[in-house]
Amino acid sequence: MNLYETCLLKGNEKGIKKAAELLRSGETVAIPTETVYGLAANALDDKAVRRIFEAKGRPRDNPLIVHISDINRLDELVADIPKSAMILADKYWPGPLTMIFNRSLIIPDSVSAGLSTVAVRMPSHPVARAIIKEADIPLAAPSANRSGSPSPTTAAHVLHDMRGRIPAVVDGGECIVGVESTVVDLTGNQPKLLRPGGITPEMLISVLGGLQIHPAVKSRLPDDEPAVSPGLKYKHYSPKADVVLVKAAPDRFADFVNSQKREGTAAMCFDGEEGTLQVPFVTYGSRHDLNAQARRVFDALRRLDDIGAATVYCSCPDEKGIGLAVYNRLLRATGYEVIELD
Ligand code: AMP
Ligand code: MG
Questions:
Q1: Where are the domains of the chain?
Q2: CATH top-level class for 7-217?
Q3: Quick check: 135 and 68 in contact, CB under 8 A?
Q4: Which of 277, 282, 274, 238 lies closest to 260 in space, CA to CA?
């Protein structure tokens, strides 16, 4: 698809103005946020939103997150605001937290994919906020990758996937969180975590008291189960290679990987644990630095394609804190294949 001469805009005043102009005219623009780059369009314009689905090749039943820069814009998007949402917004907005509300009638069906709910987030990235403010419209924005690929955490990743498919990318440097936002559903009796992210379960529980965790966070949904969050059912974040997660100490991991005889075998491991590996590898942060793992995991998955890996054994991250988000993304990249070695 070569519909556009995709231009790379700087995250300065001129770039922000140009991005806002394109968005107001019904176009899509990839914008930096603190989580990952998002592919934005006017959330209240059905035709603009449909362009997001086309550019990404995204299944129509997977709803989008609406981004605002001012809490006063929340009212018009939702049917009601539960008390828990006010508490969470107070503590974690702007930031990597998405909340699910009952939707108002101005939300086009394309945004909520026919659900009666809508997902809303207020990002903290200064460029994202400036673009939303300048455009003066709520922006629907899923991750700016081709559907199924790892989410983009640099403008170069976006261009790799989207060149020719969208009019512009705004460069805001590398995303500091690196995994998509935490998604919490507030429409039921108890807040429910649908997707782990930068706002950890521990952080949510500290203000909410309790939190249900959707089973899909850690395991594959049965095929016949209706997905509360349709995005949960898709294989996602995948490089071209087959990825297998391996839970093992560093030496055991290296022995196991070195004993594989298949051509195209590669490893994805923690910084400093590559020493005895006899296969090509990429690293994704130190074993103990969960924030670095989150920041680097998607870039590492993309680099596996660059080295032409066919089967990748990936050292399994810790499930604590933001590590749960890294674990969840890797599980979904592997199609939930985990090997445990003692
Ligand atoms: P992405 O922005 O690409 O990470 O995709 C947005 C994620 O939010 C997907 O996993 C969606 O399924 C989820 N999502 C968006 N809207 C809703 C909603 N109304 N209810 C539940 N999940 C949602
Ligand atoms: Mg996505």
A1: 7-217, 242-340
A2: alpha beta
A3: no
A4: 277
Does residue 175 have its Cβ closer than 6 Å to ligand 1? Answer: no
Atom of ligand 1 nearest to the CA of 143: 3
Q: What distance in Å separates the CA atoms of residue 230 and residue 233, rounded to the nearest whole number?
A: 6
Name the pTM for this structure: 0.96
Residue 151 is classified by DSSP as P
Q: Compute, in angstroms, the gap from residue 232 CA to the centroid of ligand 1.
A: 8
- The fourth-level CATH superfamily of domain 242-340 is Threonylcarbamoyl-AMP synthase, C-terminal domain (3.40.50.11030)
Residue to mutate, 195, 236, 238, 298, ligand 1, most ligand atoms under 8 Å from C-beta: 195
Could you list the mean pLDDT of each consecutive 10-residue stretch along the chain, which spans 342 residues? 92 98 98 98 98 96 97 98 97 98 98 97 98 98 95 98 98 98 97 98 96 92 65 69 94 96 94 95 97 98 92 96 97 90 86
In the reported structure, the alpha carbon of residue 249 is separated from the centroid of ligand 1 by a whole-number distance in angstroms of 35
